[in-house]
Amino acid sequence: MPSPSAINLYDTDMNIVLVSIAAFLATFLGGLFALRFKDKLHLILGFSAGALIGVAFFDLLPEALELSAGHIGTSTIALSIALGFATYLILDRMFFMHCHEDGHEHRGHFGAGALSFHSFLDGIAIGVAFHVSTAVGAVVAAAVLAHDFSDGVNTVSMILRHGGERRRALKWLAVDALAPVVGVLSTFIIPIPSEAIAPILAIFCGFFLYIGASDLLPESHHQHPTRWTSLATVAGMALIWAAIHFAGV
What we know:
Number of strands: 0
Number of helices: 8
Order of helices and strands: HHHHHHHH
Distance between the termini: 37 Å
Helix content: over 70%
Largest sheet: none
Structural class: mainly alpha
Low-confidence stretches: 1-7, 98-103
Strand content: under 5%
Mean pLDDT: 77
C-alpha cells in the first residue's frame, strides 16, 4: 500500500499535469479567437495592448517585487524594467525598422518570441509553486490561466500586425501554447531559485510595456475611431487586473 507522502506526491504531479493541459488549451483558444475575428484586428490590437500593459503592471511587476524581497533591492528591479524597455526600443529602432523585405515580420517574431518565453516562465512559476504546496500552486495556476487566453490573442496579434500570414501565426501560437508545459516540465529537472526569476520577470515587464504602449497601441488607433479601440484597451487592462485579483483571493 503506498504511503501518504507518495499519494500526496502523485496528487501534486497530477495537478501539475492538468494545469499544464489547461494552460495549453487556454492559450490556443485565445489565438484561434484572434484568427477568427482578424477582420476586427484594430479592436483586437487595442485589447492586446491593454492586456500586455496589464500583465506588466498587475502580474510581472508585483511578482518580481515579491520574489526579490530580501534578496534584490527595488532599485535593481526598476533598473531591470528600464533595461528591458530600452533593449526592446533599441532593437526596434536600430534593427527591425531597418531590415529589408522581412524586417516588418522580424518585429512580429521577436514580440511573439518574448510572449512565448514569458509563457515558459509562467510554467516554471506553476511548477515551483506546486512543489511548495498544493494551495500555493492553485493560486499561481489560477492567475496564470486567467491571462493565458489573452496571451494567445497577443501572440497571434503580434504576427498579424506585422504582416505574417495565418500559417505563421498558428506556428507561433503552438509555440506559445506549449511554452508553459515545457516550463512546468523543466521544474522536475532543474530547480530554479526564485531570486534568479525576479530580474527576468522585471526585464519582460519592460518588454511588454514597450510592445503594448509603443507598438500595438498606436497601430490600433491607426485609421480607426479611437473610442472603441480605447475602450478595448481599457477592457484588456481591466480583465487582466480582475483575473489576477480574484485568482489571488
